[in-house]
Amino acid sequence: MLLTMLTAWTASSVRAEPVIVDLSRNFVAITAGFTGTEVLLFGTTDGRGEVVVIVEGPKENTGVRRKEKVAGIWVNGRQVNFTDVPAFYKILSTSDLDEWLPLPVREENQIGVEYLDVQVEGDVNEADAAEYRAALIRNKQRIGHYGKVEGRLQVTDGRLFRSTVHFPANVPVGKYQIRTHLVDKGKIISTRTMPLTINKVGIEAEVFRAAHEHSALYGIAAIIIAVLAGLGGNALFRKG
Amino acid sequence: MFLYLPIAELSVNVFVILGLGIGVGTLSGIFGVGGGFLMTPLLIFLGIPPTIAVGTEANQIVASSVSGVLAHWRRGNVDFKMGSVLLVGGVVGSTFGVWLFRLLKELGQIDLVIMLSYVVFLGTIGSLMLVESIRAMQRARSPSRRRKLHQHNFLHGLPFKMRFRRSKLYISVLLPLLIGVFVGILSAIMGVGGGFVMVPAMIYLLGMPTSVVVGTSLFQIIFVTANATFLQATFNQTVDVVLAIILLIGAVIGAQIGTRLGSKLRGEQLRGLLALMVLTVCGKILFDLLVTPEDLFILALGSGH
After folding, report:
1. Residue contact B299–A140, C-beta within 8 A
2. Which of A169, A236, B88, B159 has its CA 20 to 30 A from that of B153?
């Protein structure tokens, strides 16, 4: 027993880190032509165990509404608000998580949408909270912000792993965290966290900032553009 | 070619939006309508959030009414006095409308109210137009009858009378003011110029001569939609200028095609066709409201920020 621990310790100290990981880039720019993008994630292990990677977007508050039928028409009914909801959440792993990652470990480290530590705001009974929570995840999956299934990491030589992480066109902006866990014998033995920032740049960012920070001026500019376009269109008309 | 819309926060195919602008612009060129009542629902069908479709369309209508009013002005077909009274009402109405929009947005019911307004107005206008064009087709075959210029009714007994020389009217200012307020509210909530309500109201309620109706309506629509654009941008941040610019480029091209086509095509049949299109859009919105949704739960709008 003591001997195995000692060997493990020497091995890890020699190779420095049991798991090393990096991204092809740590900034994703949303420009005018943005239609989604892929970031390459790659790394290496010391040969032990399996790897699971969690791609997690910024935490935000999200409301979920239930539709209700009123006089034959579907209207928006009760709303339940959640806090600490990751705007984006996807999992990549070397093989099926169920086979080597015990549930308590998954729960503790929020690995899997069912283990996300989202908080219900206000006074909501447990059954309702569970129903709305499931709906929150289902809706996030439908718009492509949460993964429906685990992505697969390709493994070479039992040590190198790699995969592309896809971010769709409607990807939420903000600061992302990419957590990589090395799991051996049902325990997390090493964790690496990489930051990734996704943001609008250039004209897209300028327009968004103007609209939100200088709303009145933005409105006036929008009207001026429209009036000029109208005059221009009319000038074209007269020629034509 | 895809373009990321900064306010709507989604990527759209520029050619689809441009095509939509040209298509609706062509229709407005043929029929002299603003086209907002078709454009806004079509944008929503394309996946643009309803609140942004409404705010952006108001912005685009400013451009098309500026363009349109100049042509009418040159021909002397704008009653500025009547237009001013209507626009005072319109500014009050659209201000109230944007306030109502914000309130409904906070209550989470704005999408429903936008959709229901469309069902009611598209349904009514589409049916009336269809009936009218069928009648016109029948009338074309039988000898025509003369109609009275306008009827006198209780509306002409209201106080605060004012003379509108260009429209040859002496009526109470309350009536155009009220019409202006009503159309202003519609403009803010539905993202339309409101010409499709304004024009019939001017003809049948006010009794204005048809020659000045379109020009005067366009004149006041400029100010009402400009007011709606300003307020939507300021209080709701729902105006996407990038989307508006693509739409208005399309609309300018479409309007040219439309005016040329309009002079070559038969009016009644075209009106019947437009009526059918309006009713189809109405039917699609109604269907979406009635059919059981795939998921009974939805993410609340705008809560992510």
Report:
1. yes
2. B88
Side-chain-facing half-sphere of B165: CA atoms under 13 Å:
2
Q: Which residues of B touch A35 (CB under 8 A)?
A: 2, 4, 11
Count how many pairs of residues, chain A against chain B, have C-beta atoms within 8 Å. Answer: 189
Q: Print pLDDT tens along chain B (305 aa).
A: 889 999 988 889 999 999 999 998 888 877 767 788 889 999 999 989 989 999 999 999 998 888 888 878 888 888 999 999 999 999 999 999 999 999 998 888 888 899 999 999 999 988 988 888 888 878 776 655 545 555 556 666 677 788 888 888 888 888 899 999 999 998 889 888 888 888 888 888 888 888 888 889 889 999 999 999 999 999 999 999 999 999 989 988 888 788 778 777 776 777 788 888 889 999 999 998 999 888 899 888 654 33
Task: Mark A3-33 as b/e (b = at least 16 C-beta within 10 Å).
Answer: eeeeeeeeeeeeeeebbbbebeeeebebebe
Instruction: Name the residue of chain B whose CA is nearest to A32's CA.
Output: B4
Task: Provide the 3-class DSSP secondary structure of residue A106.
Answer: helix
Q: Is B235's CB within 8 Å of A215's CB?
A: yes
Q: How many residues does chain B have?
A: 305
Say which of B4, B239, B293 has its CB closest to residue A32: B4
Q: How far is A233 from chain B (nearest CA, A)?
A: 6
